[in-house]
Design goal:
Blueprint lengths: L13 H29 L4 H6 L5 H13 L6 E5 L6 H20 L2 H14 L3 E6 L2 E16 L7 E5 L2 E17 L2 E4 L4 E3 L10 E8 L1 H8 L25 E8 L4 E6 L5 E6 L14 E2 L1 E3 L2 E5 L6 H20 L4 E3 L23 H6 L3 H4 E3 L3 H25 L1 H7 L7 H13 L2 H25 L2 H8 L10 H9 L1 H7 E5 L9 H26 L4 H12 L9 H93 L1
Antiparallel strand pairs: 1-17, 2-6, 2-12, 3-5, 4-5, 7-8, 8-9, 9-10, 10-11, 13-14, 15-16
């Protein structure tokens, strides 16, 4: 057989099995302590211990109190623009991503159950984590292909297309993605491993263990899995001819080589090796685990129970002593055997007399006071009360260590004022905030991993379907928004992902937030409308102020686009109205100019006519003056002539 035809020898798994073994060596004592804590939490004892010992399971009580205080409901993803400015595409992109994440965490129960299991692991052994996967589902469709070929070159189903050519139609089965999801798997605290490091930032590889049956392993890895040794997961369920066993397979994600490797315990070869399948920014498909107490020199956590295990043991001892004292706290005593009727005193019914045969002899002996004597129980009762007080004192110490005392102090009663209840509520959350913030960080990191997978892997049609964006006002921006989500750099700068509260809020909180928004927006709108009517130039500024306030309300996000469109229409309407007003003013100005021109021309014409009339009048007046002057001259001449005749006549006389 040629060298090229020889089967390729699988790579050795020795290196990775040694890495996993080094992790086990460092975390071995922590694992043993974790087993003991879980056993104590479950109160696993033998039947003989159950009968002879009495315990106070303070650990179970603490976990049942702390777990709902830090995680009690599925967090809702809060995807928002990094800057709350006017950006329709970014708003649509954040809306698509938020709805897609909400679909993932609400449609499937794996997110809540996996985070809840991780929180319990954090409270018990001290570390909890999850694993995020990408899981597409494929289907096939029949797709038709049509091509034109020259005559005589192809055979099959043909129809004339053009002279000398034929159209050939063929069908082909094409594989398509029919559904996509990214499940969140809970990882049992013993099935998780990572490179030994001082801090999480120094971790170079992470791994989780899964148990596969023969059929599951062969389907996943092929025939090589047939030689993998099988070990039982728990106690083997033995039948006459079968023992159910599975193989322990480790899935290792190596950040340095950007590879994913699968190895099996006690098997010398690597089962599979692949390049980075998810291409996440942080590479690892899991967030930083939830840790209990950590120091900066190791990632081996210290369980919370280790901080008060001595007090818990003391409580068990006190509880057992209290039980034994209670057993000793009985009404017992002795009586005079010569009077056997005295034995019936404690057995008789209420309001019943016991007959005594030799009553006179009993009276001579001092009566019942000398005939019966009880064991004193006052000392036992006193010690018992001190035991109760001691146990309560130890309990308070444990509550102070764990922070449960803050929850107790935060409890309120109906008779207290609202201010007192608010103060208690704030005080109760002080010491739990750190733990709650860590759980919130854990959920946020999971959602960010899911968001990366959704943005890079999901098909555009799937994103539109699960988000329902086509049925909203942002449908016109959907394609551009999905393109933004596919762009890594633009997505990081434009969208921020957070989580809402992990603790169950008041049932009316959402309604109160909506009512608050409506009241605030309604009041502002009333004032803005009045101001806009009085000073129209302020309308754009008032609109921006309204949108600034709306973007600050989480409950207003579903209608933010509607407000944007309404403001745009209002501004467009105002612009058109102003344009119409300008046109009207221009028309009016034109008419005024025409009237002014006409008036001016009319004035000019009237002035010319008036001048002519005045000139005519002047000329007439001049003629009249000339006529008057002529008449005056004539009169003067006639007068002088008459005077001269008169003078001549006088001289003649």
């Amino acid at each position: 057989m040629d060298k090229e035809e020889q089967p390729v020898k699988p790579d050795s798994s020795e290196v990775w099995l040694a890495e996993i073994q080094s992790y086990r060596k460092e975390f071995d004592s922590w694992g043993s302590r974790g087993d003991a804590i879980v056993k104590r939490y479950r109160d696993e004892r033998g039947s003989s211990q159950l009968k002879s010992e009495r315990r106070y399971n303070i650990l179970w009580s603490n976990i049942q109190t702390l777990r709902p205080a830090v995680f009690s409901k599925t967090p809702k993803p809060n995807v928002s623009r990094r800057f709350s400015d006017k950006d329709d595409v970014s708003r649509c992109a954040s809306r698509i991503l938020e709805r897609s994440l909400l679909y993932e965490v609400e449609q499937y129960t794996d997110f809540f159950t996996s985070v809840r299991g991780s929180v319990i692991d954090r409270l018990l052994p001290g570390r909890g984590t999850v694993w995020v996967r990408y899981e597409p589902e494929f289907g096939t469709i029949q797709q038709e292909y049509t091509s034109s070929m020259p005559m005589g070159e192809m055979e099959g189903q043909m129809s004339d297309v053009a002279e000398g050519e034929f159209q050939i139609t063929s069908t082909e089965e094409v594989e398509i993605v029919t559904h996509e999801c990214c499940p969140t798997d809970y990882v049992f605290w013993k099935d998780f491993a990572h490179s030994p490091a001082r801090t999480w930032g120094e971790v170079t590889w992470v791994a989780r263990r899964a148990y596969l049956s023969y059929d599951e392993g062969v389907e996943r890895f092929g025939k090589i899995f047939a030689n993998v040794p099988k070990t039982s997961v728990s106690q083997a369920e033995e039948t006459d001819n079968n023992i159910r066993k599975k193989a322990a397979v480790w899935e290792v994600w190596d950040k340095e080589s950007k590879k994913v490797i699968w190895v099996a315990e006690k098997f010398p070869f690597i089962l599979d090796k692949r390049d980075d399948p998810l291409e996440l920014d942080g590479f690892f498909p899991c967030p930083e685990p939830l840790y209990a107490t950590l120091t900066t020199d190791t990632l081996v956590p210290v369980p919370d129970y280790a901080q008060y295990q001595n007090q818990a043991t003391e409580m068990d001892d006190l509880t057992d002593r209290i039980y034994r004292l209670q057993e000793a706290l009985k009404v017992v005593g002795v009586y005079d055997a010569s009077t056997p009727e005295l034995a019936k005193l404690l057995k008789s019914e209420d309001n019943t007399l016991v007959p005594v045969k030799d009553w006179a002899a009993l009276v001579e002996k001092g009566g019942l006071a000398n005939g019966v004597q009880f064991v004193p129980v006052q000392d036992i009762a006193s010690v018992l009360m001190e035991m109760y007080k001691a146990r309560e004192s130890v309990k308070q110490i444990i509550y102070e260590i764990t922070g449960i005392s803050d929850i107790i102090r935060g409890a309120s009663v109906a008779s207290e004022t609202a201010t007192a209840q608010a103060i208690k509520s704030q005080f109760a959350s002080l010491r739990l905030n750190d733990m709650r913030d860590d759980v919130e960080r854990f959920c946020r990191d999971i959602l960010r991993i899911k968001a990366e997978i959704i943005c890079t892997k999901y098909q555009p049609d799937v994103l539109k379907a699960i988000s329902g964006i086509d049925k909203t006002e942002d449908a016109q921006f959907a394609d551009a928004a999905i393109q933004l989500l596919k762009d890594d750099s633009m997505r990081e700068y434009s969208i921020d992902i957070e989580t809402e509260s992990l603790v169950k809020p008041d049932k009316t909180a959402e309604q109160q937030n909506r009512v608050m928004f409506l009241q605030t927006a309604g009041t502002f709108l009333q004032q803005a409308i009045q101001a806009g009517q009085q000073v129209p130039e302020l309308s754009p500024l008032l609109g921006e102020m309204l949108m600034f306030g709306i973007r600050g309300f989480k409950t207003a996000r579903p209608i933010e686009a509607a407000f944007e469109q309404a403001m745009q229409k209002l501004q467009d309407g105002q612009g058109q109205k102003m344009q119409q007003q300008i046109q009207q003013l221009q028309e009016q100005l034109k008419q005024v100019q025409q009237h002014a021109q006409q008036a001016y021309q009319a004035g000019v014409n009237a002035g010319a006519n008036q001048i002519k009339e005045q000139e005519t009048q002047v000329k007439g007046q001049e003629a009249q003056i000339h006529a008057v002057n002529a008449q005056t001259d004539q009169y003067r001449a006639e007068t002088e002539r008459g005077k001269a005749i008169a003078d001549a006549q006088e001289r003649m006389m």
